[in-house]
Structure formats: C-alpha cells, structure tokens
Specification:
The chain folds into two domains: about 110 residues, Immunoglobulin-like; about 325 residues, Methylamine Dehydrogenase, Chain H, CATH 2.130.10.10. Helix content is about 5%, strand content about 45%. A five-stranded mixed β-sheet has the order 2-8-7-4-5, with no helix packed on it. Strands 9-35-36-37-38 form a five-stranded mixed β-sheet, with no helix packed on it. It has a four-stranded antiparallel β-sheet with strand order 10-41-40-39, with no helix packed on it. A hairpin with a 2-residue loop joins strand 27 and strand 28. The radius of gyration is 26 Å and the shape is globular.
Amino acid sequence: MSASRKCQAVSFLFIACLLRPGVALAAPSITLSKKSGPPTSTILVSGKGFNPNVGLDIYFDTKDEALVVTDGQGTFYEAKIHAPRSAHPGKHWVTALERNNDQGAQKPFLVQTNWSQFHFDADGTRVNPFENVLNAKDVGNLELKWSYPAGDVGTSSPTTANGVVYIGSQDHNVYALSARSGALLWSYRTRDIVATAPAFVDGVVYFSSWDGNVYALNAITGVKLWAFNTGTAVDSSPTVKDGILCVGSEGTNGGVWALNARTGAELWRYTGTGVDGSSPAVANGIVYVGGEIRNIYALDAKAGVPVWVYDTEGTYSSPSVRNGLVYLGWGDGVGALNASDGARVWGYISNGSVLSSPAVDDAAVYFGSYDYNVYAVSASTGAELWSYKTGSYVDSSPAKANGVVYVGSQDGNVYALDAHTGVLLWSYATGNSVYSSPTVANGMVYVGSSDGNIYAFGLPRGNAAKQDAASRRPALNSLRPDLRLKASQPTSPNRGL
C-alpha cells in the first residue's frame, strides 16, 4: 500500500472512532449564567462536548450540588447550583464531571459581597447580609490596611464593587481606588463638593454634586457618560433600581427626580419639596424620601405622584424599608411608618437630633443621635434594646454585617459594636470627625474622615479572611460524587451555549 493510501486509511479510521457512540467530538466545556456574585447566588450551568446520555455531577468547589444527564449530543442546559453561604470572597471553581470517569470541565466563579450603593440595596437597609468574613469574634483584630488622602471627605460615604472603592470629596472630586491597595485608579472633577455616596450598577458609577448635576461615569475609566442638571445643589446619594435612578435636590426649587440610568433622560420629577441629605429608598414600586422642610414622601416609582405623605417636621435622614415598614430619623428620634399608607406604627425619642440614616434588620433598628449615643431599638415595637455612648455627636449612619454594627462619630473614632448587646468590639481613632458612613464588604471596612483620608481596615494576613482552602482549583480525580443526588433528565436548549 502506498504512503498516501496509508494516510487516508488512518484518517478514515480516526473519523470513524470519533463518530462512535460514547466518544465526544470535542473537548468538554461549560458556561455559567454569571461570572460573579455574593454567597447564596444561583448559578445556571450549561455544558457541551461530553459523552452522550451519561450522568454528570456539578460541583461548587468540592461540594457536589447537582446531577444531570447529558442528551444524545453530549450537552446539558441550565443545571441549577448555588454558591454556599460560607464561600469566602475570592475565586471559586464550578466543575462538571462525568460520574464514571475523569472527563470534565471547569470555570471560575468570583464570590463578592459588594456594597455598591449608599443603602447597600435599593430598599435602604444598610445591612450586608452576605458578609461572612468579619464577625463579632474576629472584628477585634481589625488593622489598618491602607489610607488615601482624598481631600476632605466630609459626609461622603464609600461604596465598593468589583475590587474598587468609590468616594466623593469636598475637593470637588470623586475617586476610584483599588480596594486591595488604595492605589488611585482615576478621579473625576466636578465644579463643586461631592458630599454623597456614589452608586455602582452594571459597570457605571453614578454620583451627585453640589454643582447641581447627577453624573454617570464609566466605572473602569472614569469617562463621563452623561450628566443631568437639576438646577439646584444635590446632596442626596442616587439610588438605582431596575434601570431607574432616583435622587433628590435641595431648596424650594428642588425635589425628587427619576432618570433613565442608561441615558440620563428625565422620566419624572416631583418638585416643591427640597431634599437635603436624604437618599431615596425604592421598594415595591414606591420611592420613599425625606423632605428638608417637613415631610417624608412616598411616590409612585413609575409616575412620581404621591401615594402618601407624612409630616415629620423635616428630616435629613434617609429612609429604610423592611418587612412592610418604613424607618427613618426625624426630630429627636426615629420612627416606623406603614409602607403602604404611611400610618405611624411607633416612635422612639432620644435626647438629641437624629440626622443619621438607620440600618435595619428583622430584629432591630440601629441609628446614631446628637446625644452622643448609638442606639438599637426593636424593629417591631421601637423599644430600646441597647445604647452605646461615643465621645460626640453621631451623624454617621450605621452599617450592619454579620452580627456587628459599624459607625463613626464626631469624636473622630470608628466603632464596631456587637449588634446583639451594644458592647464595644473594636475602635480606631482617625485624625478628625467621622461624618462618613462605613461600608463593610469582602472582609474589609471602608470609611472616610474629615482629616482628609479614606481608611481601609481588614484582618491580619493569615487570619479568617484568608481564602477558603476549597477555593483552590480542585483536581478532577479528587472530586467525589454525592450518591444521594437524583438525576435530572436532559432538557431542551433555551438559550444555547
């Protein structure tokens, strides 16, 4: 047989082997419905290139979470798994592995517990439910990781997403800093003070300025995408939900604005009430915001018309919405209103003005007062649970995460208190008053100070903040199937691979 005929025969034999049942035509691969998210995230896994009609286990790190059966083409679609509640921030691995051999494919999934808006979420709770590194047992070990001189941060509060910290300053700039090192990534200068917290949504940073504008910047480059002028100073942090940005502006010509988050186009405005410092909360189709003159307003999120109005005699506090109630500070106390009709449910009186915005979980409302105290009161009744006395006024809005309440004071300190008892767990003295509200995410605490710096605190290297051992890329032959899992049958493709 000639050399050419031998080559042809080998080629035919190779193709015939590929076409035999049970032999995959291509190397197996998987796709994930999302590349990152917090613990408890739902992840849909699809794959191709596997052997046809075989059982296939889907792992998050080393935990077997689902068993599927490939179809006749060796594919499967949208197997549902979850990132475990205990998964620490960092890179983790999703693996699809054939049950009877070591043929599989892997993709990384980045666990993050971002705090991307002033309220944390649009509802305004100021509670990070995903934080799983810092807790009441280890927060006492916090140490300064870095600080950055960002002018006089003043009342601006940091937000953080995808490894970047964003904060405004009285030097007219908004800054983007590396969350890990504090290195400056970019800054953007406006014509006046940036006193509020930026918001990060879908790769865009939104913030407001006393120059009257709301800005949208590319989160990676800091390049302006659009700006919208309200006509008066804006001292309200923007809240973004479902593609709509809501923000308030000051003065008798100010009000509440709803903008298209993608284009900056005005959707509606509600004027005649200035908003000074109160940042909207958006929940169940209603925008809640405090007016500087008298009232708290509940506005229809689509039309901007009042659903109800409650006379608080003026408030600078931002509302929080949880379990059908609206919580906010007014006068010398804090109160709860029915979210549907504005009916008063309870009120608590402190011995000083309450300008801070509450943090709210199912059990308690946490807030600061000008009587120097940080309080926790019952979320359902308003009864006092505990108080902790600082050395001065408390303008800073508390942040709560994993059993710990973080708050600043005009005495220059940042405090970490046990959320159940109010006992001091940790504190750090900055060089001036702390009006800024802390942010807690990915095992770090970020806060600004009037000494001109933004501070970042974390646990010492080698402490509980280290990545899970399970987050190392597992070898395919090291994974062990859960024989209790029941297999799902092959499904029809819905979105393709």
